[in-house]
Every structure is written in structure tokens, then in C-alpha cells.
């Protein structure tokens, strides 16, 4: 006979959903990850009330770090309004009473994100948690985890470099659009999660602590503040980010706010034409406000 009380409201859960032992273990793993930048620390990833692959690794990091004064922002592909972001935010609100949430990057103290780092430069007072599907960049060249561990330990990334070189031979350039292998603090190469190339330079010498959580693969790793992060490249084929130039070589702008310095998403409108808009919805809103106030001043 089931004697447990029905868990229908937030008070039936521990603050932050996870039990205190789980939080302690995750915090210890975070400390180790910060102490050895780029090293994948194994941890006992908990079952969460959502499928693995929906950000359970990132969520466990967020729930272990969260305090009652936290201001949390959750984004998915740059947007606060997508289904995944809304569900995770609601879950955090339900299990962490007193915590406030925001869509504004500058107001947030803790940001959980899938596939993007915000356009706003993050500050030392902020932590960003990235959701990771595949933590090990070596998995494309070596199936055995044992062997990969040795390769990481010896900083032997020659096979990964050969893979990039093969790309250049075939396509004249490195074709990776996301998950670009990045060397941290001159040693470990990480998979920076499926962020576009555009976001990779933001990891280098970041003021904010960057944490990576892979729930299914049970790994946590980190890039601490002011740490060197270099995308793998060759001296004659340097790393480059997306350029967003049109056929005539002009930089495309956001169709909503007019910004010409942000990462753009491509849409097809009702007329079948391609339209570009800022991927970071908070950035786009802010730029739009600036444009409006300039118009008011000049009117
Ligand atoms: Zn915009």
C-alpha cells in the first residue's frame, strides 16, 4: 500500500527538487571541473521528471547552484519563449519558491541555455550553464572511452586535427557549423555544446563562469573566468565565424531591429522570401527599444 503523500504542490518537493546529497555531489563535481578547466568530471546524473536529451544535465547544474536570491534566465536557441525554455523555467519556478526569473540577460545571475551564448557580454556576477548532448569531442575519432581518456590526458588531439584537415581537403574549409572543438587553457579540448561558431570566441577570457552539463552522458566540465579558449585551427586556415553576407557582400541585418552585429536566424516568410532575424530574442528587443528611442529623440 502506498503511504506517501500525493506530490501535487511545490511544498512536497525539496528546494531545487534534488535531494541535498545530489546537490552536494554536483557541487563537488563543479569545483573539480573549475579546478581542471576543460576536464570532463563524471558524476551520478539523477533521473529528472523529463526525458534525457531535454536539458537534464544543465538543469541539475542549475538546481544545485540556485539560491533563494537568484534571478534565473532560461533560453533555447536564443529564445526565452520556445517550449523547452518555457517548461524548464516553469519547473524551476515550481521547485524553487522565492527564485525570480527574467528574460533580460543583464538582470540574470544564472543563465541556463541550449545552443546559444547571449549576445550581451556576460559579467563576473553571472554564471552560464550550457546543456550538452555529447561532451566528448574525441568521440568522432575514437569509440572507446578508455582510449579517449588517455588521449585527453596526454593532450593528444592529432586525430581530431586530421579530421579537420580532411574537411579542408574535401571542402576547402572546415565545415563544422556548431560543436566546434575548442582547446581550454592550452590542454583539454572540449565540445562547447551545439553553439554556433559565432559564440565560440565568447568563451575565451570570459568574465562569467561557464559550466557544461551532459545529463545522459553523466559529465560536467567548466571554463572558469579569464581562461584561454582557442578553437582548433591551422596557421594557414584560421578559425572564422559565420559572416552573414548576402550575394553582394553586404552584411545582412535583422529584419525586426536592424542590428548588423548579431547572430541571425533565417526564416522563410509567407511570400517565400528569406528573412533574417536576431537569434537572441532579448538582444533583439533591446535593440528595437534603442531604435524607438532614437526615433523619438530625432522626431
Ligand atoms: Zn533583431
Explain briefly what this protein structure is.
This protein is of the alpha/beta class and 299 residues long. It is 28% helix and 16% strand.
Description:
The chain is of the alpha/beta class. It has two domains: 10-231, Bacterial phosphonate metabolism protein PhnH (Rossmann fold); 243-299, no CATH class. Helices cover 28% and strands 16% of the residues. It contains seven helices and twelve strands. The protein has a seven-stranded mixed sheet with strand order 1-9-8-5-4-2-3. Strand 2, helix 3 and strand 3 (100-101) form a beta-alpha-beta unit. Helix 1 packs across helix 2. The chain is globular and about 60 Å long. The model has no long low-confidence stretch (mean pLDDT 93). Residues 254, 256-257, 259, 277-278, 284, 287 line the site of zinc ion.
